[in-house]
Amino acid sequence: MAPLPEGRREVSPSREAMGDRRRPGFGTRLGVSVPISFGLPAIVIGLFLMITAATTGGLFFWIAGAVLLGAGVALFASGKRL
What angle do CA 29, 30, 35 make, to 5 degrees? Predict the structure, then answer.
Protein backbone atom coordinates (compact mmCIF):
# COMPACT_ATOMS: atom_id res chain seq x y z
CA MET A 1 0.00 0.00 0.00
CA ALA A 2 1.37 3.39 -0.94
CA PRO A 3 2.02 5.93 1.80
CA LEU A 4 -0.41 8.82 2.13
CA PRO A 5 0.64 12.23 0.86
CA GLU A 6 2.15 14.65 3.35
CA GLY A 7 -0.47 16.46 5.42
CA ARG A 8 -3.16 13.82 4.95
CA ARG A 9 -4.09 11.45 7.76
CA GLU A 10 -5.93 8.18 7.85
CA VAL A 11 -9.45 8.41 9.19
CA SER A 12 -9.12 5.21 11.20
CA PRO A 13 -5.60 3.94 11.88
CA SER A 14 -4.69 0.47 10.75
CA ARG A 15 -4.31 -2.39 13.20
CA GLU A 16 -0.57 -2.25 12.71
CA ALA A 17 -0.52 1.34 13.90
CA MET A 18 -2.91 0.67 16.79
CA GLY A 19 -1.43 -2.65 17.89
CA ASP A 20 -3.55 -5.44 19.33
CA ARG A 21 -6.84 -4.20 20.68
CA ARG A 22 -7.68 -5.20 24.21
CA ARG A 23 -11.07 -6.25 25.48
CA PRO A 24 -12.93 -3.79 27.65
CA GLY A 25 -12.49 -4.26 31.36
CA PHE A 26 -11.26 -2.65 34.54
CA GLY A 27 -7.66 -3.40 33.64
CA THR A 28 -4.80 -1.58 35.29
CA ARG A 29 -6.28 1.88 34.78
CA LEU A 30 -8.33 1.74 37.96
CA GLY A 31 -5.50 0.13 39.91
CA VAL A 32 -7.79 -2.25 41.80
CA SER A 33 -6.32 -5.65 42.52
CA VAL A 34 -8.37 -8.82 42.63
CA PRO A 35 -7.79 -9.61 46.35
CA ILE A 36 -8.88 -6.11 47.35
CA SER A 37 -11.95 -6.15 45.10
CA PHE A 38 -13.10 -9.44 46.68
CA GLY A 39 -11.75 -8.84 50.19
CA LEU A 40 -13.49 -5.54 50.92
CA PRO A 41 -17.02 -6.81 50.12
CA ALA A 42 -16.30 -9.97 52.16
CA ILE A 43 -15.35 -7.79 55.13
CA VAL A 44 -18.55 -5.76 54.82
CA ILE A 45 -20.77 -8.84 54.48
CA GLY A 46 -18.96 -10.58 57.37
CA LEU A 47 -19.51 -7.56 59.62
CA PHE A 48 -23.17 -7.47 58.60
CA LEU A 49 -23.58 -11.15 59.49
CA MET A 50 -21.93 -10.63 62.87
CA ILE A 51 -24.17 -7.64 63.64
CA THR A 52 -27.16 -9.78 62.64
CA ALA A 53 -25.90 -12.54 64.94
CA ALA A 54 -25.60 -10.09 67.83
CA THR A 55 -29.23 -9.01 67.42
CA THR A 56 -30.77 -12.44 66.73
CA GLY A 57 -28.40 -14.69 68.66
CA GLY A 58 -28.07 -17.17 65.81
CA LEU A 59 -24.99 -19.40 65.99
CA PHE A 60 -24.91 -19.84 62.21
CA PHE A 61 -24.60 -16.09 61.68
CA TRP A 62 -21.70 -15.89 64.17
CA ILE A 63 -19.81 -18.68 62.42
CA ALA A 64 -20.54 -17.49 58.87
CA GLY A 65 -19.72 -13.89 59.76
CA ALA A 66 -16.45 -14.81 61.45
CA VAL A 67 -15.34 -17.01 58.54
CA LEU A 68 -16.27 -14.42 55.92
CA LEU A 69 -14.69 -11.59 57.92
CA GLY A 70 -11.47 -13.57 58.37
CA ALA A 71 -11.29 -14.47 54.68
CA GLY A 72 -11.97 -10.88 53.69
CA VAL A 73 -9.27 -9.52 55.98
CA ALA A 74 -6.78 -12.10 54.70
CA LEU A 75 -7.54 -11.24 51.08
CA PHE A 76 -7.52 -7.49 51.72
CA ALA A 77 -4.23 -7.71 53.62
CA SER A 78 -2.48 -9.66 50.87
CA GLY A 79 -3.42 -7.06 48.27
CA LYS A 80 -1.20 -8.61 45.60
CA ARG A 81 -1.81 -7.88 41.96
CA LEU A 82 -2.95 -10.89 39.99
Answer: 120
pLDDT, one tens digit per residue, over 9-45 is 666 656 565 556 554 445 555 566 777 788 889 999 9
Average pLDDT, rounded, for the chain: 77
CB 79 within 8 Å of CB 67 = no
DSSP 12: S
Cα 59 to Cα 10, 32, 49, 50, 68, distances in angstroms: 67, 34, 11, 10, 14
Closest CA to 51 of 36, 38, 64: 64
Residue type, 55: T
What b-and-e string marks burial along 44-65, b requiring 16 or more CB atoms within 10 Å of the CB? eebeebbebbeeeeeeebbebb
